[in-house]
Specification:
This protein is of the alpha/beta class. The chain has ten helices and 15 strands. The chain folds into two domains: 174 residues, Medium-chain alcohol dehydrogenases, catalytic domain (Quinone Oxidoreductase, Chain A, domain 1, Alpha-Beta Complex); 130 residues, Rossmann fold, CATH 3.40.50. Helix 5 links the parallel strand 8 and strand 9. The protein is globular and about 60 Å long. Bound molecules: NADP nicotinamide-adenine-dinucleotide phosphate (NAP). The site of NADP nicotinamide-adenine-dinucleotide phosphate has 28 residues, from helix 1, helix 4 and helix 5.
Length: 311
């Protein structure tokens, strides 16, 4: 079978198309014929070796943390899936990836894909939508009327966050580059602030939730607390253990998240996609052999919605 692998940590030039043996599912695993792969910034981070303490030294490695496909074989003990099931999911394990024609995965990363949504769409519902859901619903308890600012609103997590915050009844302010104003409003945002023209942190508005999706410049908590209500919630995606103290005592609240692959959440996202309560935006599609270009696009840091690799 064809696969994209890398044999040492480094840049996207290390990604190579190769031939590999089709894997055999072990206990609790299924073999999936992959139809689409969703990429996330973490795939570039893992490939760079940023997480090598946990991703380890075993090579070759696959890449791509979201996928959709069809189960072709089940290992021992698998009772909740069978051959022929269409599935999608988020590969939480940083040692693993979806970049092959067939992959084996433990069942806890997967959910059934409804027939009504395409494989491409299903491959975008993992990491980013789980992150937005677990942040807004579980960490921030967003409810009808909540005033939510989303900083970094035009990329993968940002678009998912706009759509899910609207689903929860929030009033959403999207913050992104001025070129993305119409795009963010078309995803459901009520208002827009261009970070390259206006300093949202000097606004007199007070938010219930400030969701910092853009993570490359560290936490903006100290700036964001001035535009949060006293019992408001600042939340970010930077799982830094140094934030533990702040997360216990700070007011406005300080929260951060490390997304988890949860079957119930994947099932909910699939249902919302079928009901068109959420509609993933796919800006670009690539073929398996174009994985390097796809990684370079993600690594640029200015994604519009999601990109997928179709097989
Ligand atoms: N902790 C977790 O569990 C978890 C889960 C998922 C993601 N993450 C992390 O969250 C981050 C975002 O993920 P993503 O999938 O949404 O990434 P993405 O698709 O690449 O989106 C990046 C966003 O950042 C914005 N941005 C870029 N430069 C900016 C700047 N100077 N100021 C303000 N915004 C800027 C972009 O908007 P413009 O194009 O308009 O600049 C875009 O909206 C990544 O670092 C990812 O690793 C963490």
């Amino acid at each position: 079978m064809r696969a994209i692998v890398y044999n040492s940590y480094g840049g996207s030039e290390f990604l190579k198309l190769t031939d590999m043996e089709k894997p055999i599912p072990q206990k609790g695993q299924v073999l999936i014929e992959v139809k689409a792969i969703g990429l996330n910034p973490r795939d570039c981070n893992i490939r760079n070796g940023d997480l090598k303490i946990i991703s380890g030294k075993a090579f070759p490695k696959l890449t791509g943390s979201d996928l959709s496909g069809i189960i072709v074989d089940c290992g021992a003990g698998v009772t909740n899936f069978k051959a022929g099931d269409e599935v999608f999911g988020y590969i939480e394990d940083v040692k693993s990836g979806g970049s092959a024609e067939y992959v084996v995965l433990p069942v806890q990363y997967l959910a059934l894909k409804p027939k009504e949504i395409s494989f491409d769409t299903a491959a975008t519902l993992g990491c980013t939508y789980l992150t937005a859901l677990q942040t807004l619903r579980d960490k921030c308890k967003v409810m009808p009327g909540s005033k939510v600012a989303i900083y970094g609103a035009s990329g993968g997590v940002g678009v998912a966050a706009i759509q899910l915050a609207k689903y929860f009844g929030a009033v959403v302010t999207a913050v992104s580059n001025s070129s993305n104003e119409n795009f963010c409003l078309s995803q459901g945002a009520n208002s827009f602030v261009a970070y390259d023209k206006t300093d949202i942190f000097s606004s007199s508005d007070k938010y219930d939730v400030f969701f910092q999706v853009f993570s490359k410049q560290g936490s903006f908590y100290d700036k964001a607390k001035g535009i949060l209500k006293h019992m408001g919630i600042y939340t970010c995606l930077i799982p830094d253990p140094r934030f533990l103290f702040k997360s216990l005592f700070a007011r406005p609240y300080f929260k951060y998240i490390l997304v988890k692959a949860k079957r119930a959440d994947l099932d909910l996202l699939a249902k919302l996609a079928v009901e068109r309560k959420i509609t993933p935006y796919i800006s670009n599609k690539f073929k398996l052999e174009q994985m390097k270009e796809a990684h370079d696009m993600i690594n640029g840091g200015h994604m519009k919605g999601k990109i997928v690799i179709t097989l």
